[in-house]
């Protein structure tokens, strides 16, 4: 493996971890977090299984933040990249706290609807919804840690991604204008 491939590997690990973390958070918002037996009510309405999106608002915005971080990782360098890494570590830790805290399970059950058997069971927490959120938090946290640790050594988008000749042509034109002035010509009267 060449040295340039070795230097790009941590960058790709960060990008893939952020993309997978965003997908896990997005998925967590749609997965069931609480399995509700038929006939149980919330505020007088029949309740269905509750997904992450039903219980809380944070999974989708934090998934979008992880996606935006991919673009930022590719665009910034040096100290800014390390600051982004620290921010991602904090966001990953926040996701873990929110997913494991249990406040999402505090739902005001109002009782059983008439005609339903109360012995049908009680609401139960599921595994996959919170597990997807935890996986997303871990991936964002690990991406941030790697970015903080090795971010200054990772490559970034450089001159090869900018418009060809844009800056150079501007410098050449400016140089020609100054040369014309030095030769005693008026560069504004040229055709």
From TrEMBL:
Acetylation listed as a keyword: no
Matching Pfam families: Trp_oprn_chp (PF09534)
UniProt-annotated stretches for the region Disordered: 160-191
TM annotation in the entry: 12-36, 56-76, 83-100, 127-149
Compositional bias per record (Acidic residues), positions renumbered to this chain: 182-191
InterPro entries from the UniProt entry: Trp_biosyn_TM_oprn/chp
Superkingdom of origin: Bacteria
Keywords in alphabetical order: Membrane, Transmembrane, Transmembrane helix
Entry protein name: Membrane protein (TIGR02234 family)
Organism, as annotated: Prauserella flavalba
